[in-house]
Design a protein that fits this description.
This protein is of the alpha+beta class. Helix content is 21%, strand content 31%. It has eleven helices and 26 strands. The strands form six sheets. Strands 1, 3, 4, 6, 8 and 12 form a six-stranded mixed beta sheet that branches. A six-stranded mixed beta sheet has the order 13-11-15-20-17-18. Strands 2-5-10-9-7 form a five-stranded mixed beta sheet, with no helix packed on it. The protein starts with a helix and ends with a helix.
């Protein structure tokens, strides 16, 4: 009889849980990007408490570039929130006493006025509370909606809340949180110091920065996402805006499934690039079939290489040559570019001898530079701020060119260069690919040109010098 009574009491309790009464209470696990809270394994709805704090903090938007971020949780983007479809969410929003402004929160997952914004307007040093029912499963943006709304969002006030469906999405090996956004600073991209917000640029939608997870290089180097060959990866991708639509792409991967606009049903397979609207989201899944570094970009491509919208996913494991071979051949196709240039320069179609006249060598060097180098370093050697270092008046270049042993320049051209370097006091972390097909004379000509143009001044390179350096480097 006692066992029957206990069973009856338990049944009543579970019925109450399912009906939304006397719900057990749990504290939501919140995570900073790129981490995602663990999958919710319970099979019933419950009451979930979410505590989120607004802080206005000074941080780094790029190397040496400071910015005053307005944040949910102390970082940009705001913390990832995970609840389950059917949960009752008790939301607590605190505004730190050091804040200068009031803030609130609009969660796109909320059915109610302002998405919660009308109930969460919170002055510095205060805390607000409201409750909502998580009725619709999906991946949703949240953001501040205090006037001027655009300015609050532009300063970093956004994040993702995932209302996990009652039947969870298929299990994967790794889940990551990636959120794109655009920033508007008074200074141009890469300009050092504390940068104020530019309302003029924001209204014109002229972004100074377009980044993943709040700053340039937030997902590169030691902060890159990681996986192993054979892993299935799910990216929860958001776009805080405030203005620009994202053309999200992972170079070298194909999305096996895309849950467009943050819904819970995959509506397309084998996708190369998916649009993520400002104030929207998407879920993408793929399997790591081969090792290597896979680049995350906004395929509005100048944003990636000139404004910061670039990340990395590094996959480790054994190579699978049947899927991707790597470079198999590197050989001259017909004539080298240098041979063609020399032919164009000679009316009689006779290439100059190795020790060519100085004027022809300079012309050859300039033409080679224009054809092989100017796309990145620009026509006058000025480079691209934050992306490609200048050659004009470059202390890095001239320091090497002034040494007795100048083989490092030969090595850079022949084998390429990657990683951080400092040029004229500014840090660059890009990739220079090898320049192939240059003879000893060709390389001497182009190095002589770049080290003696645009107010640079160094001893001319000779074909014999290049030949000796190349022989030494091969040892």
């Amino acid at each position: 009889m006692g066992k029957i009574l206990i069973g009856f009491v338990i049944s009543l309790f579970l019925m109450g849980c399912k009906g939304g009464k006397n719900l057990p209470v749990e504290e939501a696990i919140l995570t900073h990007a790129p981490d995602v809270p663990p999958v919710i394994t319970r099979t019933h709805s419950t009451k979930v408490k979410v505590h989120l704090e607004v802080r206005e903090v000074e941080g780094e938007l790029d190397s040496g570039v400071k910015y005053t971020f307005w944040t949910f949780g102390g970082k940009v983007p705001g913390k990832f929130i995970r609840v389950r479809e059917g949960d009752t969410v008790e939301f607590h929003l605190a505004n730190h006493p050091t804040s200068k402004l009031p803030h609130n929160i609009d969660l796109h997952s909320v059915t109610g006025p302002g998405g919660g914004a009308t109930s969460s307007f919170t002055a510095p040093g205060h805390a607000s509370q409201f409750t909502f029912k998580a009725m619709n499963a999906g991946l949703y943006i949240y953001h501040c909606a205090t006037a001027p709304v655009g300015m609050h969002i532009a300063n970093g006030m956004y994040g993702l809340i995932y209302v996990q469906p009652k039947k969870p999405l298929p299990k994967v090996d790794r889940e990551y949180y990636v959120l794109q956004s655009d920033f508007y600073t008074e200074g141009n991209f890469g300009e050092k110091g504390l940068q104020p917000f530019s309302m003029e640029k924001a209204i014109k939608e002229d972004a100074s920065y377009v980044v993943f997870n709040g700053s340039v290089n937030a997902l590169t180097g030691d902060q890159a996402l990681i996986a192993k060959v054979g892993d299935t990866v799910r990216l929860f991708v958001g776009n805080g805006g405030p203005n620009l639509v994202s053309s999200f792409h992972v170079i070298g991967e194909i999305f096996d499934k895309v849950y467009t606009e943050g819904g819970i049903h995959p509506n397309q397979e084998n996708v190369q690039t998916t649009l993520v609207p400002a104030g929207g989201s998407a879920i993408v899944e793929f399997k790591m079939d081969v090792p290597g570094t896979f680049i995350l970009v906004d395929h509005s491509i100048f944003r990636a290489f000139n404004k910061g919208a670039l990340g990395m996913l590094k996959a480790s494991g054994e190579e699978r040559k049947e899927i991707y071979s790597g470079k198999e051949v590197d050989e001259i196709y017909l004539e080298s570019k240098a041979d063609i240039i020399r032919e164009e320069m000679q009316p009689g179609n006779e290439a100059p001898k190795v020790e060519a006249p100085k004027e022809i060598s300079r012309n050859l060097g300039e033409r080679l530079f224009s054809n092989s180098c100017a796309m990145c370093h620009q026509s006058k050697g000025q480079g691209l701020p934050g992306a490609f270092p200048p050659l004009a008046k470059s202390d890095y270049l001239m320091n090497i060119a002034g040494r007795a042993d100048r083989s490092e320049l030969v090595k850079i051209v022949d084998t390429g260069l990657s990683g951080k370097i400092v040029v004229n006091g500014k840090e660059y972390n890009s990739v220079m690919t090898p320049v192939s097909g240059l003879s000893d004379e060709d390389l001497a000509a182009v190095l002589t040109f770049v080290t003696n143009a645009w107010s640079n001044n160094a001893k001319a390179f000779t074909a014999k010098e290049i030949q000796a350096y190349r022989a030494h480097l091969k040892k």
